[in-house]
Structure formats: structure tokens, C-alpha cells
Amino acid sequence: MPHFLDLATPGAAGLRAILDDAHARKAARRGADGRPWSKGRADADAPLAGHVLAMIFERPSTRTRFSFDMAMRQLGGSAIVTSAGELQIGRGETIADTARVLGRLVDAVMLRTANHATLEELAAAAAIPVINGLTDISHPCQVLADIMTFEERAGRAVAGSCWAYLGDGNNMANSLIEAASVLGFDLRLGVPHGYDPDGAVLATACARGGSIDLVRGATAAVEGAEVVVTDTWVSMGQAQAKEKLAAMLPFQVNVALMAKAAPGAIFMHCLPAHRGEEVTDEILDGPTSAAWDEAENRLHIQKSILLWCLGALA
Ligand code: CP
Ligand code: NVA
User: Which residue's alpha carbon is at the smallest distance from atom 4 of ligand 1?
Assistant: First the structure.
């Protein structure tokens, strides 16, 4: 079953096919006058007509929720959105039984969960594709949208580029590490001691031959980087600890730090941002910021992820 739980399973060829399809579908949604189509209009081929995606959220979401729903509409299908609290799981029905039932009723499931093991349990029992809409361990849809954003801004494939990630070694950091090792770009991590990314993810990526460097210092991470990425210092479900915020402070992306990156470097943030913490207004709203393109590209890349999962990628 082609589940999309991480970036390693599709492999470089699978990710390349998804990226190429997303670029092509995005480009095709323009009229002869160059203006983008209205957002609710289906793609000309409507390849998922008659298909339904179930979305289950254990955590809040703005981008993931709207982009997957719009993705299904543009592919000619539809989506059912629910919070985990509304399901019988809350009354003790098992994840596996829930998976069996959903497999009889819908064509694919997207889950956002606090615990990566829940996603794996759902996928293990599901006869339909399961998509990772963020867990405590990873956020593969977001990172693939970020890679799409780099490729459209840089006008070339991501392989061989140089990225810096600053701040907390969280789910975004883990998926970037995985992406760098699968797609062959360099990643430098400016992450303070005590807030490292997942050890198993890092070890697997390094064993795969990934060029991943835990440089620690913010300046060392950013110097010469073509992309500077950060994320919130306090992820969903984490307690706001004073000592963590103090440890993160030197990793704030501001004008002085961004100036040390390569000329023309791009700033990325998956959003939501905590303005004045991990990034300043000048950077998030400034000319180097690709944050809003990333948010839009969640829609485009997820259409192609859905097609890959459902065996409908051209
Ligand atoms: N970046 C992202 O996943 O945003 P949401 O939490 O709003 O879905
Ligand atoms: N690291 C963040 C990402 C939000 C999209 C979190 O897990 O809350």
C-alpha cells in the first residue's frame, strides 16, 4: 500500500515524480492571458473524480486542512474533515478498527496526530493509503512543499543546493534531514545542545549518505546557505519553557543573520510563525521570504502526493 508517512519510502524517484507533477499541474492552472484559474475550478483531467479523502485532526491546523480539501476539489474529488475527538476513538474504539472501517468508506486518509506511533498503527491496518499530515516526529508534506518552492524560485532541481535549519530539532528538522539524504542536498543544522533532532532519523539519514552537519552555531549554519529555514521554538503540545526560549534566542532569523547567507538566499518558514521569536517581521515580510509561496505550494504538492498514493500519477 503506497502510504505517504515519510520521505524515504517514495525514494528519490518517487519524490521526483511527485515534484514534477506538482510543478506541471500548478503551471497548467493559468489561462491564455496568464491569469490563474479560480481556486475551486477542477484541473482539466480531474483525475480523482469520484474519490473521497478523510482527514482526521488531533491537533489544530489552518494550512494542512484547507490545502488538502482544496487539493481534492481541484483533482475532482472531495474531502471529509473531522477532529479526532469527534470519533469513536475517544470512547475506546481501536485505531486498527477505525482503519478497517475507513477502508470500506473512503479512498484515502490523512491523519495529523500527536504521536507518530498512532499514524503507523493506522497505516498498518488500513487497506487504503494513509498520509502523514504532521506528527511529533515528522512533517513530510510540508518539507516537500518547501522543496517545490525552492525549485520554482531557483529555477533548478534541489539536488546539490545548500540549506540551513535553525532552532528546535523538531518534526520539521527531522523531515528536512530525511529529504536532504534522499534528494541529495546539503543541510546544516544550527540547533542548540539539548534540542537535537530525532537520533534515529539522523542516524538513518547519515547511513544513507546524507550530507548533514550538526554545526550548532547559527552563523556557521547560515554562511553560504541558499535557503535558511526555521520553525516555531514551541511545537504543538509542548510546554513553553523559559530555558528553552533562552537557548533558542541566538538562532533567531533576523536581518543580521540572514545577511550571512549566500547572496539571493531564500527564507522559509512552514508557519504559523511566532513573530519576534524565531523570526523577525523584517525577514518574514521581507523580499527574501518565501513563506507565503510555501503555504500555497502545500496545495500543489499535496495534489501530486494524493495522485502518487492512489496510483494515478502520470
Ligand atoms: N504548516 C502547517 O502545517 O500549518 P498548519 O498547522 O496550519 O496546518
Ligand atoms: N513544529 C510545528 C510545526 C507546525 C506546522 C509543530 O509541530 O507545532
Answer: 63
pTM beyond 0.85: yes
231-281 pLDDT, tens per residue?
A: 999 999 998 889 999 999 999 999 999 999 999 999 999 999 999 999 999
Domain count, the chain: 2
Instruction: Give the model's pLDDT for residue 240.
Output: 83
Domain that holds residue 257: 142-294
Q: Is 74 in the pocket of ligand 2 (CB under 6 A)?
A: no
Q: Provide the greatest CA pair distance for the chain.
A: 55
The sheet that has 162-166: what strands, in order across it? 212-213, 186-190, 162-166, 227-230, 266-269
As separate numbers, helices (DSSP H) first and strands (DSSP E) second, the chain gives: 12, 9
Whichever domain contains 27, its CATH number is 3.40.50.1370
* Alpha-carbon gap, residue 173 to 197, rounded angstroms: 6
Which residue's CA lies nearest to atom 2 of ligand 2? 235
**Residue 5 falls within a domain, yes or no?**
no
- What are the residues whose beta carbons fall under 8 Å from the beta carbon of 127, sequence distance 6 or more? 1, 99, 100, 103
- Give catalytic residue positions: 112, 139, 142, 231, 270, 298
pLDDT tens per residue, range 180-224? 999 999 999 999 999 999 999 999 999 999 999 999 999 999 999
Q: Is 81 a residue whose pLDDT tops 90?
A: yes
297 is written with which cell numbers?
505550494
Ligand nearest to the CA of 268: 1
